[in-house]
Amino acid sequence: MQELSNTVRQLLESGSVKVVIGYGEGTAGKVRPVFITDPRDADSLIFDIRCKQNLAVYVLKHEVKHLGKAAVVAPLFTLKTILQLAAENQLADGDIVILGIDDGGKLTEFSNLADVEAFVAPHDDLTADEKEKLDRIEKMSLDERWKYWQNELSRCFKCYACRAACPLCYCTRCTVDINQPQWIPVPSHDIGNLEWHVMRAMHLAGRCVNCGECARACPLDIPLNLLTQRLIRDISSQFNQRAGISAKAENALSTFKPDDKENFIR
Amino acid sequence: MIEKKSINKNALIELFKKLRSQQWRIIAPVKTGEQITFREITDGADILEDYIQTTQSPKGVVFPPVEELFRYNIKKEGVELSEKENTVVPTLVFGLRPCDAAGIAPLNAVFIWDYKDSQFEERLANTYYMPISCSKTDESCFCTSVGGNPGDTRGSDILLTKLSTGEYLAEIITEKGKKIADLGTGLFGPEPTEAKEKNLAVVDRRFDAKELEQKLKTLFNNKIWLQQSLRCIGCGACAFVCPTCVCFDIQDEGRGNKGKRLRCWDSCGFSLFTLHTSGHNPREVQSQRWRQRVMHKFSYQPDRLQVVGCVGCGRCSRACPVDMNLSEHLTRIMEVQP
Questions:
Q1: Taking CB atoms and an 8 Å cutoff, what residues of chain A touch B267?
Q2: Do A138 and A233 sit in the same domain of this protein?
């Protein structure tokens, strides 16, 4: 932790960044995001197994941007998010200082996105546990799977924590918020919930880096990341494309190619 | 005048049976996965006692997340409106916490304020509250800072407190409570000798809601709102688990000329909440929305409706994905130099 605090102190003292977005101790044993602007507060930064929030969500937040250039404490999933945001032109090389951190708390300060790409390259998109859980759901009959999702999604009350917590849900005006015309029913009834979650997952197809933030943020414990994980699998097998591994990637579902193998698009 | 009696668990199960035989619904906390949720129960045998608080409040019983207000049919000769058919049945909400029962007052204050909301009123008139006093608490609880306590009787029709003997002290508080007791004649025993107070949790008082109301009047332009809300991601989790948040959105759902008008929960944390048709948004950043949330509950509502818009149940703090802890924030606000 000393290495992290020292680096952050130096970054702030030298003026190379104005704010460091990291993890700090919260209440009831939880950790919380903290925004360090004073070098004297650098010691309040922590990093341990509880630090699961994807802090890349703050990089694009208006009030955080307003503080000036930021450094962000970035575990693997945040590094991948940063690459994906760069690929989608939301971030450019050098916009932020990236403080990569591994499970053991070892720090790597990246000087450019190419180095981040090299760092994330050897890592799989899905863990063995995640693959096994997906397999279990895929083995269900259509009827069983339908019942499983109906049951899970019936709890949703549309607080949109999944959307707000996701760094890749950065649209200033989401399709669900548009009512002229209305694409998605607003009420949190069965069809409204189903359409919202299917749309959310589809919009993240080929873009989601599997940080798990949607499921972590859900106050009702709905395993939303199962939907996006399934799409990671589909996009990878059908388009041979992965998100969060390159700062220059083309998204499978939103890139037009004249030589596309599907002829409906021509 | 509160009438004090006793009841044991078996008698409660009998009471539920009796009520259900008369077409009552019983809503009680049940375990769903890792969470505790209010659901309709058919058997009183699995009454949950060993929990601090449910994830969601029982607000939805009287103010559902989605509610049909009326149906419309646009015809040549004009718009035809039809009222929703009345489906309200007597409902016992059992096993909630005293703070949730106290949360009825702020809801009621809004719904019967100028226009009397008939659907809300009718539902509330048919809802009976039988909470169980708190014997446990956690660091998110702060009922005593907003005028409540773990054995608070406000809003309860019958308040139960579990005693060391295993039976419950039953305080019959309202006429509605008396009606339940009458339906359960023979199931209630004499007043127990054990004192109520020694069976209650101790919740430290962190601030005074009256002082907070005064303090907030001086802080509208303070930088604390930005400091506190920098980590807020602007979701509606806090509002949707809250027993007293009352804001709603009106939506029409229809096909062609026919459809229905719905009332849906809304949250002041959403950027869309105050967005004008013109594109102007008077609360364009999260710090302004956070200020509104605190001001509304602890300043405007006590000022205009004489009721604090918070009962200190702590659900928002537990549900928040970024640890916006309400009592911590309010305690800091009390320390601010204007």
A1: 159
A2: yes
Q: Nearest CB to A221: which of B33, B253, B265?
A: B33
The tally of domains found in chain A comes to: 2
pTM score of the predicted model? 0.95
The answer to whether A143 contacts chain B (CB < 8 Å) is no
Domain assignment present for A77? yes
The residue segments making up the domain with residue A80 are 2-120
pLDDT digits (tens, 9 = 90+) for B250-307: 999 988 899 999 999 999 999 999 999 999 999 999 999 999 999 999 999 999 999 9
Asked which of A100, A120, A140 is the last residue of a domain, the reply is A120
Quote the minimal CA–CA distance from B109 to chain A in Å.
24
Judging contacts by C-beta atoms under 8 Å, the chain A residues touching residue B319 are 219
Smallest Cβ distance to A161: which of B65, B237, B287? B237
Look at residue A169 and tell me if it is in a domain: yes
Q: Do A187 and B66 touch (CB under 8 A)?
A: yes
Q: What is the ipTM of this complex?
A: 0.95
Instruction: List the 63-82 stretch of A: residues with Cβ below 8 A of B.
Output: 63-64
- Residue B144 in this model has a pLDDT that exceeds 70: yes
DSSP secondary structure letters along B287-314: HHHHHHHHHIIIIIHHHHHSS-S-----
Q: Binning pLDDT at 50, 70 and 90, where does residue A265 land?
A: low
CA separation for the pair A111, A113 (Å, rounded): 7
Picking from A27, A32, A163, the nearest residue to B231 by CB comes out as A32
The answer to whether residue A266 is domain-embedded is no
Both A112 and A153 in one domain: the answer is no
Quick check: B235 and A159 CB within 8 A? Answer: yes
The runs of H, that is alpha helices, within chain A are 2-13, 62-65, 76-87, 113-120, 128-138, 142-154, 161-165, 190-203, 213-217, 225-239
Residue contacts between A and B (CB atoms, under 8 Å): 106
Q: Which residue has the higher pLDDT, B84 or B288?
A: B288
At residue A50, the pLDDT reads: 97
Asked if residue A184 and residue A113 are part of one domain, the reply reads no
Q: Does A25 touch chain B (CB under 8 A)?
A: no
| Average pLDDT for B310-335 | 98
A179 found inside a domain: yes
Strands (E), chain B: 3-7, 25-32, 35-40, 66-75, 78-83, 91-94, 127-130, 158-162, 168-172, 248-255, 258-265
Mean per-residue pLDDT, A26-33: 96
Task: Give domain limits for chain B.
Answer: 3-335
Same domain, A112 and A176: no
